[in-house]
Write a structure and sequence with these properties.
452 residues, Rossmann fold, Helicase, Ruva Protein, domain 3, five-stranded parallel sheet, 19 helices, 47% helix, 12% strand, binds adenosine-5'-triphosphate, binds magnesium ion
Length: 452
């Protein structure tokens, strides 16, 4: 048996026994830290982590099983072996129930002790590795699907829960909410990540070519089939196929797709050979499939087949908390030396409704970055769809002419127009101009616009 040395903590109030067994373990190459009481060990756990804990059961103060429960709360991945002179069945059951790795009865043979320690050490290292992997997967995931809002945390949780299964996923959400981002994230954190990710936009394939694009064809299968074609499903073999805009798939292609999903085989056009496929299928749509089923434009059976694990991507206006972190992320993607955003500009971003969601935010920032001199984005650099923003309207349609303008005349003209449009209703006109009625009256008086 090859030696394996680990970091062992040994809790035992009997000094003699503790010294003897510690010596046995040290002889084997282990690094042993001794504690006479469980309380000392618990305290030490705040600073340092053992790989395996060996603890006596009967001790003054906290006993072994109580200690075990505390340890499992703090560091569940560390195996705990319980050592006891009272080798009763009840104790064994109780220890196992509260997650002891094993239990040994005194007097314990040195060989047996060393074997149990060694096995526990192997488990401990496997646990540590798993923990590390899931940490780095988590990090990877939050660098792909960016955001801190509770809605996006939920999305990330669902994505990580489903990534390793081969279940079909249906991503829904408005345009620009990150459906493709989520599909890529599922692929990237799965064990298929080194294999292809094939994104297929179902709405972009001409109806008569859908079948051959998806499942392939043989040379000469139809006019224009000048050579064999593999098809997206076979290209995605061992990887992931992302069927985007699945709601736009024609009805006859829906029937064929259903068969492929059910039987896991494709039959390229012009052949009668069935080829086994291993592609993980992710679908997405921003259409209401349930509505389409009612209108008989989407097959109900296909819907149930793809809707096994639905994930909904929230709109940006439902998670405005994420705007700032997304803005930083999107700008960094374009330029590592990205500008800062002034408070006023950020306020504009926060006040806006974002019908085009994260994609629209991305576009607005891209334009703002072009104009931002001195590395700072100001509110005048933010061009958002002005119809949604009454405050920005003036800015959008008035451009200062090269010859200049008389501000006073402009003001008079705007007041006249507002009064004309509201048929002299001053309260209403004031609202149109974004001022109070008394401010309007003051200005009307100043410009001599009040009819006496
Ligand atoms: N959570 C997110 N983290 C980082 N970037 C995001 C996120 N969500 C969306 N984006 C960015 O927003 C843009 C649009 O995302 P994506 O293409 O995934 O949206 P979509 O839901 O597929 O939209 P559509 O329905 O119009 O196809 C991309 O540039 C993407 O990088
Ligand atoms: Mg998309």
């Amino acid at each position: 048996m090859t030696k394996m040395s680990g970091k062992i903590w040994f809790i035992e109030d009997d000094n003699n026994l503790r010294h003897i067994l510690s010596a046995v373990m040290r002889d084997e190459g282990h690094e042993v830290r001794e504690f006479p009481y469980a309380e000392n060990a618990l305290k030490a756990l705040q600073e340092e982590l053992p790989e395996v804990i060996l603890t006596d059961f009967q001790m003054p103060g906290m006993n072994g099983v109580e200690f075990l429960r505390e340890v499992k709360n703090i560091v569940p991945q560390v195996p705990v072996i319980i050592l006891t002179a009272y080798g009763s069945v009840e104790l064994a059951v109780e220890s196992m129930k509260s997650d002891a790795y094993d239990f040994l009865t005194k007097p314990v043979s040195n060989d047996h002790l060393l074997i149990v320690i060694r096995n526990a050490l192997e488990l401990s290292r496997a646990n540590a590795q798993l923990n590390q992997q899931s940490e780095s997967r988590k990090e990877l995931l939050s660098s792909i699907i960016v955001g801190d809002s509770k809605q996006i945390l939920k999305v990330r949780e669902l994505v990580s829960r489903i990534a390793e299964q081969n279940t079909t996923v249906l991503l829904s959400g408005e345009t620009g909410t990150g459906k493709e981002v989520a599909a890529r994230a599922i692929h990237s954190i799965s064990s298929r990540s080194s294999k292809p990710f094939i994104a297929v936009n179902c709405s972009a394939i001409p109806e008569n070519l859908v079948e051959s694009e998806l499942f392939g064809h043989k040379k000469g299968a139809f006019t224009g089939a000048v050579s064999d074609r593999k098809g997206f499903f076979l290209s995605a073999d061992c990887g992931t196929i992302f069927l985007d805009e699945i709601g736009d798939l024609p009805l006859n292609a829906q029937a064929k797709l259903l068969r492929v999903l059910e039987e896991q085989v494709v039959t390229p056009v012009g052949t009668s050979t069935e080829i086994k496929i291993d592609a993980r299928v992710i679908t997405a749509t921003n259409r209401n499939l349930e509505e389409m089923i009612k209108n008989k434009t989407f097959r109900e059976d296909l819907f149930y087949r793809i809707n096994v694990f639905p994930i909904h991507l929230p709109s940006l206006r439902e998670r405005k908390d994420d705007i700032s972190i997304l803005a930083t992320h999107l700008m960094k993607q374009k330029n590592s030396d990205s500008p800062e955003i002034s408070n006023a500009a950020m306020q504009l971003l926060l006040d806006y409704d974002w019908p085009g969601n994260v994609r629209e935010l991305d576009n607005v920032l891209e334009r703002a970055m072009v104009f931002a001199e001195d590395g700072i984005i100001l509110s005048e650099h933010i061009e958002i769809n002005v119809r949604h923003e009454s405050a920005a309207i003036g800015k959008a349609f008035i451009e200062l002419p090269d010859t200049g303008v008389s501000l006073e005349e402009l003001e008079i003209e705007l007041i006249r127009q507002a009064l004309k449009r509201t048929e002299g209703n001053q309260a209403h006109a004031a609202r149109l101009l974004g001022i109070t009625r008394s401010a309007l009256l003051y200005r009307m008086e100043k410009h001599g616009l009040i009819e006496k």
